[in-house]
Fold each of these.
Amino acid sequence: MISRRALELATAVLTGGFGVAVVTSSFDNGIGWSSAGVEAGTFPFLTGIIIVLGSIYNLVRGVLPVASLANVRVAITQIELRRLAGLFVPAAIFVAAIPPLGIYIASALYVFAVLAIPQHQSVPRALAMAGAASLALYVVFERMFQVSLPHGALAAALGF
Amino acid sequence: MDNLAELLHGFTIAVTVPHLALMAVGVLLGILVGVLPGLGAPNGVSLLLPLTFGMQPVSAIILLSSMYWGALFGGSVTSILFNIPGEPSSVATTFDGYPMARDGRPTTALATAFGSAAFGALVGVVLITFLASWVAQVALAFGPAEYFAVYFLAFASFVGMGGAAPIKTVVALAIGFAIAAIGIDTVSGSVRLNMGIDELVKGVSFVVAVMGLFGIGELLVAVEEEFHARAVSSRIDWREVFRAVGRLPRHGVALLRSAAIGCWMGITPGGPTAASFMSYGIARRFSRRGRYFGTGEVEGIISPETADHAAGTSALLPMLSLGIPGSATAAVMMGGLMIWGLNPGPMLFVDQKDFVWGLIASMYVGNIVAVVLVLLTVPVFAALMRIPFVVIAPLIVIICVVGAYSVSNSYLDVVMMLGFGVVGYLFKKLFYPLAPLVLAIVIGDKAEDAFRQSMLMSKGSLGIFFANKLVTCLIVAGIALLLLPLVLQLARLWRKPASPTADTTSQEKVII
C-alpha cells in the first residue's frame, strides 16, 4: 500500500533531482551574457532552477498535513500494486531482452509468457498469438515499410 | 473572399481518390487508437509519423489529421457504450453518455455525441478558414521578440487556464524545456545536458516521450482498475440517428456556447480535455435542466462533445499560423511538419499554399468521413472491447517499443521510453498535466532561439520585450495569466477564510 503523500514525495524528489542535474550540467556551457550573446547554458540553468523551486513547493504541499492532499490516504492499494508490477516487470524484462535476442524473438517470448504463465490463455493459443505478433511486426515493418528493427546479438552470432 | 478561392483550390487537392482513401484509413486507425485504452491520439499520430516520411507533406498531414479526428470520435464510443473513456478528452462524455446508453438509448447517445462533435469541428474549421491566414499575415511582421512573447503567452495560458495545479504545470513545462535543450545547441553548436551519455548528443525526440508518457503511462493507469466492459447494446438504429440529429438544433444555445468555449481553449493552448470539462461544468450551471445532469441529459452529452472537437480542430490554427500547437496531438503533428522539411508558422501561408489549404479543405471532408465511418463501425469496434485487456496490453507495449526504436534506430530511446512511461504514470496519478510537457519538448528550442535572438538584437536588455505596443500587450497578458491562479486563490481566501481545502478536489478532476 502506497499513500498519496509518499507518491507526491517520490515524484517531487524525482523532478527535483532532474532539476538539480540540469542546473549542474548547464554550468559546463556557461551562464549569462558573453560577446556572442546569451550563453548556451543560460536557458537550461533557468529552467533547472524553476524545476527545483517548483519541486520544493510540490514537496511541501504534498507532505504538509494542512494540505488538502493529505486527506487522500491511499493512492495505490496492494492489489493495484500487484497489477502494476504484473504489467511493468514483464515489459521491462522484454526491453532488456531486445539487445541479446532481437525484437522478434523477444516479443514472441514476451507475448507467450504474459498470456500463458498466468494462464489467461491456453498454451497452444498463447503460442499462436506470440507467433502472430512477431510475424505481424516483421511483415509490417521489415517488408511493407522497410524499417529495420533490432535483430539482436543472437541473430548476428547465427549470421543473419 | 480570397480565403474562399483558396479554400476551393484546397478542395481540388483534398477531394481526390488517393486522399479520400488516406482519410478513410486515417479515420479508421484513429477510431482504433481512440477505442483502445493506452493508445490515444498523441501516440497514434507519432506511431504513424515514421511511415509518412516518404509521402508528400499534404498527403501525410491529411493522414495524420484524419487519424486525430478518428481518435476524437473513437474516444466517445467507449465513453458512451462502456463508461470507459478511450481518450482523456472524452471523460466528461461518460457523465451523461453512459447513463443514457444504459437506459436503453445507446443510438440516441451516440448520434447526439457525433452530431454535436461534428458541429464543434465545423465551427473550428470555419474559424481556421477565415482567421488563420489573417493571423499569419499579422505574424509575418513578427520579429524574435514578438515570437518569444507569443510563446510565453502560450505557456502562461497553460498555467492560468489548464485546470491542473499551477505549480505542477510549471514544473511539467520546465521539464519539457530542459528535455528540449538536451543535445546540440542550435545557436552555439555546443553539446548540452547530455549528463555524460554520449548518445544523448542527438537529443531526445518528442516521439519517444509521447510513446512513454501517453502509451506506457496510460497502460499503467488502466491496468490498475479491473476492466469489466459491461457493454450496453451496440446496435445502431438508423432512423433514431436521424431523429437525434434532427433534435440537435433545439439545443442551439448549448451548441454555440460549447463551440465557443472549445475554440477558445483550442487556440489558447488549454487543450480539448480542459475544454470539455469546462464546457460540461458551465452547461450544468446554466442549463435549465442542470440538476438532472449525470442521469443521461442530452445537453450533458452535447456540451463536452462539441467543446472537445471544437478545441481539437481549432488547436491547428495557432500551429499553422504561428507555429504554436494548441494541444499535445497538434504538437506531435507540428513535429512531423518540421521532419518533412516545412517550417510551421506564417511563412506556410506564403510558401506552401497547397499544403495549408489542402489541409484545411481536408478538415471539412475528413470530419464528414469520420462521422459516417464511426457510425458504420460502432459494432465492430465495440466488439474489439471484448478482447481481454491482458491480451491487448502486451501488444501495445510492443507497439510503443517499436515506435520509440524506429525514430532513430536507437536502443537508448527504447529504455528512455520506458522511463517516460513511469513518469507518465506518476504524473497522471498525481494530476501533473502532460500536454504542456510535450508541447515544451516540441517548441522549447524555438522559444529559446527567439529569446536569444531578441537578446542579441537588444544587446542583452530585457527592454526589447516592452519596445512596442504589440509585444508589451502579449507579455503583460502572459504575466496576467501566470498570476491568475494566485489571484483566484487570494480572492477565495479573502472571501472564505476558513475552508481552503474544498476546492482542490474538484479542481483535480480536470487533468491534462
Amino acid sequence: MASEPQGGLTEYIQHHLNHLTVNFSADHFWFWNLRADSIVVSFVLGAAFCLWFWLFARKATSGVPSKGQALVELAIEFVDTQVKDTFHGDRRTVTPLALSIFMWVFLMNAMDLLPVDLAGWLVHTFAGDEVAHHTYFRMVPTADINTTVGLSVAVLFIVIGHGIKAKGGFGFGKELLTAPFHASNPIAKLILVIPNFLLNVVETLSKPVSLAMRLFGNMYGGELVFMLIAGLMVSWISFVPGVVFNTAWAIFHILIIALQAFIFMMLTIVYIATAREHH
Amino acid sequence: MEINMTFLGQMISFAILVWFTTKFIWPQLNGAIEERQKKVAEGLAAAERARAELKDADAKVATEIKQARLQATEIIDKAQQQANQLLDKARAEATAEINRLKAQAQDEIASMAQRAREQLREQVGALAVKGAEKIVQREIDPAAHKALLDQLAAEI
C-alpha cells in the first residue's frame, strides 16, 4: 500500500479507518448507514460471551467446580465484589448488568490485539482482489463511536430507571427541580427551579458523553497507534523496530483493554448508586 | 465520527445481552457460588464441632482407662488373696491328714505289738509248760498243778 503512487502512510491509515457500511434506505441518507463490521463483531462477541458463560451456568455445581467454572466464577465474583463495595441494595439486576458490560467491552476491546491487517488479508485471500478493493473491515467495535454511545445511552436509561424506581416518578421529578440548590421559602424555590433543572440536565447528559468518549477515545487512539506502527513494517530497515514497538504497545494495550472495560463497568455502578441516593 | 443506525443496533444488542445475562447466567452461577459458600461454612463448623467432640471423647477415654486399670489392680489383689487363702487351707488340711494318718499308723503299730506280745506270752507259757512237763513228767500231776502253772504263765 505504501508503494501505491498516491499512497503512503496517510492513505494506509485512512483506508483502515473506513467502516464496512451498508445502507438499506432508498435515499441513502447518512443516518441509515449501518456499520456492519461493528455490528457483526460486537454481536459475535456478545453471543460468544453468552454461550461461554451459559454453558457453565447450565451445569453449575455447588460442589467442586471444574476449571472452566472456576474461571467463570472468578469473573463473576470479581464483578460482584466491585458492585458490593459501591452499590448497597438489591444486586440481582445490577451485577448481571455490570458483568455484561465488563465482559462485552473487554472482549470488544481485546479485538484491538488482532493484527490490523488481519481482516483485510482474510478478505483478500478468500474473496479475492476485486472484493478486497472496496471492502473495509474494522475489528474493534469499541473504536466506533456508535458502539460506545449505544452502550452509554443504554446505561443512561438504566440509571434514570433506577432513579425513578428508588424515588418514585414524583420524587424523581421533584429532585430534578429542587436539587442541588435548596431553599426554604417558596419564592426562592421557584426561582431556583430553572438553574436546578439546567444543572441536572447537564449533569445527567454528561454521564453518557463522558462514558462513551472515554472508551471510544482510548480504543480509537490505541488502534491508530497500532496502524502507525504497522506503517513501520513496510520497509525491511524499520521492520525490526516495528515488531519491537508493536509488541511493546500490545503489551501495554492489554492494560488499557482491561482498564477501560473496568472503568466503564465501575462508572455504571457508581451512576446507579448515586441515582438511588436522595438529595 | 458519525452517529448513525449502528448506534441503535448496538443499544439493542446491549439490551439483549443484559437480559440474557440477568436471566440465564447470573442466577445459576451465583446460586452455585452461594450454595458452595454455605457448604464450606457448614463444613468448617462441622470440623470444629468434630474437633470438640474428639477432645471430649479423648478425656472420657482417659478416665475410662484409669478406672479400668484401678479395677484390674483390685481384681488381681483379690485373686491373690483368694489364692493365698486356698493355699493356707490346703496346707492346713494336708497337715491334719498327715497327723491323722500318723496317729492311725501308731495305733495300729501299738495294737499289733500288743497282739504279738500276747501271742508270745502264750507260746512262752505253753513252751514252759511243755519243758516242765518233760522235766517232771511223772512227778507232776497236770491237774494238781494247773493253778500253779497258770500263775506262772501269767507272770511271764
